[in-house]
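<backbone_tokenisation>
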Amino acid sequence: MDRNGGKLLTEFVTDPDPAMRLGIVSGRRRHGKPYLLQALSERVGGLYVTAVREEGRLPALQRFSDALAVHAGLRPGTLRLADWREVLSNALEVTARSRTPLLVIDELPYLLQHSPEIPGLLQQLYDERQRGTGAGPGARVILCGSATSVMHELLSGTKPLRGRAVIDLRLKAFDYRASRAFWQIDDPLTALRVDAVLGGAPGYRPVAARPHPNDGFDSWLTRTLLDPGRAVYSRTETEYLLREDPRITQHTLYYDILTAIAQGATTPTRIGAALERQRNAVTHPLDVLQSTGYIQREQDILRPRHPVITLADPVIRTFTRRYAHTLLPGGPPGPVGTTEVADPAARTKHEVDVIALALGERPQAPRARIALLGEAKATAARRGTGDLRRLEHIRALLTAQGYDTTGTTLALFSLHGFYPDLTESAASRDDLLLIDLEALYATR
């Protein structure tokens, strides 16, 4: 989570307003939600309770009652509350005795499977407590869950809690630089490989940190993630990631779609073709994968009505959005994405891995100023003047099509460096950036 998210939660729980306030926190498994919310509850003396998968209604009521009793200084079993209204009402009353009256209910979707009335009850309690007659701050309730679609629907349409939440915080994985710092990895290439297999999810470190990646990526991979004796190797781990969303029932189809996207299919038609299915057969699964954060659907940065589907958080576009301003002569860029550039003479199209418009330009605007054209290749080969000529050709095509390329910087990204003649060329011109791993991770 970034600093803004932490600040948002801190402001939420310390708000002195006497009325009750509600917050929603969601995010996929192993993104650190329990760690964050337990730490927050402990810091302010709040009550943190988590639901349990496949636990029945009556055991859940008793377990929540016991947690409430312990928080009030009583022995477990002292309270036997009959329904969720009693549980929630008593929880709000008990936490109100604290200077910071915080109640956290984690993994709420598990409770909703047998107790769908809970959001309606919270709505009633919320509405009853809006006058805030107490002397101190009102109750602060945080609802959390890994089934992101369920959590997002809590505030949608005619749902009881719609319009009542102050925050809707969606916890994301670390970006590639934050992930490296979190794991304390020395070598940038090792850091990139670890990020490639774990996706920046911080929750994997406790189960995959011995041996440490600094001891060698191959050794770390084979002795942790690929060791059949380790929990993260099991099929349960990969299936659980998709089972978090109740809408996902055909796991094989979703994995096939993710594989097709990873192999370069960027439109519903191409994805359907890769799976030998019709386009409309993948429309709903793509919507689900987008809402759960596994894929991103963006418009072609130059061409209207041309969606581009990619796996979430590609490193190169993350770099361009967040960090490239330190290298670009024109400062921070505007919108960042991908595009295809028509080449009529060659009767082909050129895919551009990353393109950034100038600050202030709108996507799909004719004659837009282009700040950066980039190509990234994760291969063992070094990049050479042939790659540069390809980018120069694409820039010339865009110029002929009416775009303003007078200030366009060409960027080549490489895992293993560049040939000397390309390095010499970059040293003598100000429109060419060579981005290696050291630059990507800002280690020099």
